[in-house]
Amino acid sequence: MISVAFLTGLFSSLHCLGMCGPIALAIPSPSGDRFRFVSSRLLYNFGRITTYALLGAIIGLLGIGIQFGGLQQVLSITLGLAILIGAFLSISVEQKLLQVKALDRALLKLRRSMSRLLARQGQPAHFGLGLLNGLLPCGFVYLALSGALLAGNSLDSAVYMMTFGLGTLPMMFGISLLSGKGQALLKKRYRPILNGFIIVFGCFLLLRGMGLGIPFLSPELGPIGDSVAGCN
Question: What's the pTM value of the predicted model, to 2 decimals?
Fold first, then answer.
């Protein structure tokens, strides 16, 4: 499923144009210093990837309990159906979360902390900005975490999320070098592809949970208590 993680990151980076693109563009760097300009944006992105890996390690602890409880098959089908329903009904996970007042207040504090880091010079601040950026509400991060949960342990889940983050790197680093108009053009052009990928990923989880005996796509699971075959 590592290839799935990378592709999820690659396509989901288009979704990040609206929220993360302006942050990447706002990273300060000394005028005329090309090395600092590039390194600051790379550190910002590696900060995001570090947070994704840590989230993966945490979600992997839940995955261990699910493996022992024999719930991976049920979880895979449930997640697949939820993703498909959300895609067809155009449900925004981010907007739903912001309706929870406690989460909205936490997000406000997070953004204030990010604003303070943006005002600072220095590479540690840029890396810290990326760390916090990885905590921003993002439906595609949650989509990736749903896949990481099926890995079954913290290490594999962390690797899954790190690979997801590396998948976002080419686009996110590239758009940090673009103007706002360039970002808007990409976002408009690739939105249909993005929606299609969400549907494909939902179908993948659904088929995987069914255990139809199709190698990689839907491996045979046997009894429901068995672990998910071929997840690594």
Answer: 0.75
